[in-house]
Amino acid sequence: MNASESMGPELANRLQSNLADVRRRIEAACARCGRPAGSVTLVAVTKYADLAWVRGLLALGETQLGENRPQQLEDRAAALGADSQRAGEPAWHLIGHLQRNKIRKMLPIVRLIHSLDTVKVVEAVDRIAGEMALRPRVLLEVNVSGEASKDGFTPESLTADWSRLCELRQVEIAGLMTMAPYAEISEAARPVFRRLRELRDVLAAAPASRERGLTLAELSMGMTGDFEVAIEEGATLVRIGSALWEGLDGDGG
Question: Residue 140 belongs to what H/E stretch?
């Protein structure tokens, strides 16, 4: 099925145009900082997207899909295909908060969890993954900005807990994630993204990381309003919703 068969030719053309524009902006941001465009993965945030739009995006070859809510991720994985290891199938990213009672359902269907925000939840994921004979890739969410409304480790608490986290053997800690405060000017997010990259560099150089062979290569940072700045500061995953769904009967989140 192509995109027009999934959602009609007019909307399909708009979606294709939106995607091309996002891709162009990613490539331009990479070029400005001397990075290959392939070093950045676009994660399409589907929180507010109609299922037909998501099917249209899959028809255009974009398979990396991000959901904030575990229940919605589970429902959409069932509707669209949940085999995140098979080529061409949707690869689901959980980018929102993971409650411990949802871990067992999420582990078999997610490619990457972006949002582990406490030692206890990381340890719970590690334990349950062991019981299920799975080795999940995860990112640790860091509240770099210190906003009370945001979840995540503080930079100080993550540094203090790092050796303990490195003792876990079932989870693969692939890197870090953050969200910058909302601002009218994207440049305002740069210090937050730079701080996350610097924290990653410090943790990757720690003896516990070297012992485990952890490089923390992934940095999940940047959304529609600030992803170009995030790329310039080292993002490897950008989480984009509204720029993709613009004009398709409402905003995309």
Answer: strand 137-141
For CA atoms 155, 161, 163, 165, the dihedral sign is negative
Task: Read off the tokens for 162.
Answer: 């790092």
CATH fold, domain 3-245, is: TIM Barrel (3.20.20)
Q: What is the pLDDT of residues 92-122, one digit of tens each?
A: 999 999 999 999 999 999 999 999 999 999 9
The domain spans of the chain are 3-245
pTM: 0.93
Separation CA 155–CA 199 (nearest Å): 7
CA 34 to chain centre: 22
Which residues are registered as beta bridge partners of 25?
Answer: none
Q: Are 107 and 129 in contact (CB under 8 A)?
A: yes
Convert 188-203 to b/e letters by CB count within 10 Å (16 or more is b).
ebbebbbbbbebbeeb
